[in-house]
Write a structure and sequence with these properties.
Radius of gyration of chain A: 22 Å
Strand content of chain B: under 5%
Largest interface: A-B, 15 and 17 residues
Number of strands of chain B: 0
Helix content of chain B: over 70%
Low-confidence stretches of chain B: 177-184
Largest sheet of chain B: none
Oligomer: heterodimer
Helix content of chain A: 55-70%
Distance between the termini of chain B: 68 Å
Structural class of chain B: mainly alpha
Number of domains of chain A: 1
CATH class of chain B: Mainly Alpha
Strand order of the largest sheet of chain A: 1-2-4-3
Radius of gyration of chain B: 24 Å
Largest sheet of chain A: 4 strands, mixed
Shape of chain A: elongated
Chain lengths: 304, 184
């Protein structure tokens, strides 16, 4: 289990399993809506999915420009920082990706992120802090991790997860509101409804948003672990990324802007560990990621 | 009626699978070519750096003629290579000659401190990285292609489309044959 090929495979399988779990959850929620509301519920489902799609699709489509504005990142040219561009080019050659846009965020906390709806529209950004504290090998590991997100199309994966979780939250919200007003339910169907089924579907609708959020966070954590493994497949140097993560671990400063909307895209979670329970974390704990990379370093059978 | 639909559906799925496998094989074959041309691009970049580097070093270390001759000869040889194994062999020779040149510079502190040499050194080291990543990417692509050519259904299409298993890019470099990093 400690070479990057098997790790990549394992994380891809787990993502697939989690996405499947999402699909099952959607199915259960729709079933619960139909049980509870009968025919009037039918129209709700496409409405909720449509609204979630609209809100997520916009941010997915324009992810590079939106994130640029939200994080205050400035795009760089080659002449602004030739060393950084050379490093990014090296990893691009290793991964077979096109050269992404490179941007910088004025922030002393070391961090980095990548976004863009496809490899052609990719953007990779660094805080000024990370450029100051990391050496060449460490930065290379960070760049490889970020470009792995691009290669693995994580903007798309997280957009799918966000859409599903959003649709489920909306559906559940509708139902709560309708219960408040006491309307909506098919009165004529009351007589032949099983009360246990009604209560069960109500519980499902109440708990579903929470379950969707848990699944969404779990998917994000899998994608992070996958990006670490993919990064090693690019650089063949687990030590570089491991040292970079250790730098992040030692560093206690947190990126200034704490917008949760873009939290998932940073290499290290910009939010405080204590404020979010481990189950809702978008990233696996740094210690766990470091241990996985160490295991790869120690494995003499690593394919080179 | 419904059974005909099922049979047609299954046939359609098989057809889709076969078309997808065929396309994958062709795509892999093309990406091996692209990966090889990326190696050549990076080797060309490195070759372009050499005259400048040699001139700069010569300015400080006039008497190291054999080292300069090695580099220039290796570079000249590299320009004529075309097949994968020839390119790889020439690449290995240039890599080693350059290493010899850089070892010589250690004895000339004035040279090592000159701004021109420092910027050349930075450019050379990133180019070396690019060359080695290009080699690695090519070999990864060859690995995927060869796997596909040797397994079903790629092995059937390989004959039809005249796609063959490719040669790995192996350079004979003593520094690359490091002992495995064993930790206890």
């Amino acid at each position: 289990m400690n070479n990057f090929r098997s790790l990549q495979l394992a994380n891809q399988r787990k993502t697939f399993g989690l996405l499947l779990g999402m699909a099952v959850l959607v199915f259960v929620v729709i079933y619960a809506v139909l049980t509870y509301f009968g025919k009037t519920g039918v129209g709700l489902v496409p409405f909720a999915v449509g609204m979630a799609l609209l809100s997520v699709w916009g941010s997915y489509y324009a992810s590079d420009s939106i994130v640029l504005t939200m994080t205050g990142a400035k795009e760089l040219q080659y002449s602004d920082n030739p060393k950084l561009f050379d490093l990014v080019q090296e990893v691009c050659i290793a991964s077979g990706l096109k050269m992404p846009k490179v941007a910088i965020v004025e922030d002393s906390a070391p961090n980095a992120f990548a976004t863009g709806r496809n490899p052609e529209k990719a953007l990779i950004a660094f805080t000024t802090g990370i450029l100051d504290v990391m050496d060449r090998d460490e930065l290379q590991g960070v760049i490889a991790h970020e470009l792995s997100h691009v290669k693995n199309r994580d903007t798309l994966v997280s957009a799918i997860a966000a859409t599903t979780a959003g649709a489920i939250a909306l559906l559940s919200d509708f139902i709560m509101r309708m219960m408040w007003f006491g309307g909506g339910r098919d009165r004529d169907r009351d007589n032949n409804q099983n009360p246990i089924a009604l209560i069960a579907s109500l519980i499902v609708l109440i708990l579903a948003p929470l379950a969707a959020l848990l699944l969404r966070s779990a998917i994000s954590r899998r994608r992070e672990a996958l990006a670490d493994a993919t990064a090693v497949s690019f650089t063949r140097n687990p030590a570089g990324l491991r040292k970079a993560l250790e730098v992040l671990q030692r560093d206690s400063t947190v990126v200034n802007q704490r917008s949760t909307a873009v939290a998932h895209i940073w290499i290290e979670s910009p939010l405080d560990d204590s404020s979010v329970s481990k189950l809702f974390a978008t990233h696996p704990p740094l210690a766990e990621r470091i241990a996985t990379l160490r295991a790869m370093e120690a494995n003499p059978n690593n394919p080179n | 009626m419904s059974s005909t639909i099922i049979v047609l559906g299954v046939l359609a799925l098989i057809l889709i699978f076969l078309v997808a496998s065929y396309n994958r094989l062709i795509r892999l074959n093309v990406s091996v070519d692209e990966a090889f041309s990326q190696i050549e691009v990076q080797l060309k970049r490195r070759a372009d750096l050499i005259p400048n580097l040699v001139e700069t070093v010569k300015g400080y270390a006039k008497h190291e003629n054999s080292v300069f001759e090695n580099v220039v000869a290796a570079r000249a040889k590299a320009t004529t290579a075309t097949t994968v194994s020839d390119v790889a062999a020439a690449d290995g020779a240039v890599t080693q000659a350059l290493r010899g040149l850089l070892a010589v510079t250690e004895a000339y502190p004035d040279l090592k401190a000159s701004a021109n040499f420092l910027s050349l050194q930075e450019e050379l080291s990133t180019t070396e990285n690019k060359v080695s990543f290009a080699r690695q990417f090519y070999n990864d692509n060859v690995r995927s292609l060869n796997q596909s050519v040797k397994t079903f259904p790629g092995n059937i299409f390989a004959g039809i489309a005249k796609v063959v298993a490719r040669e790995f890019y192996v350079i004979d470099d003593p520094q690359d044959r490091k002992a495995p990093n064993v930790k206890f």
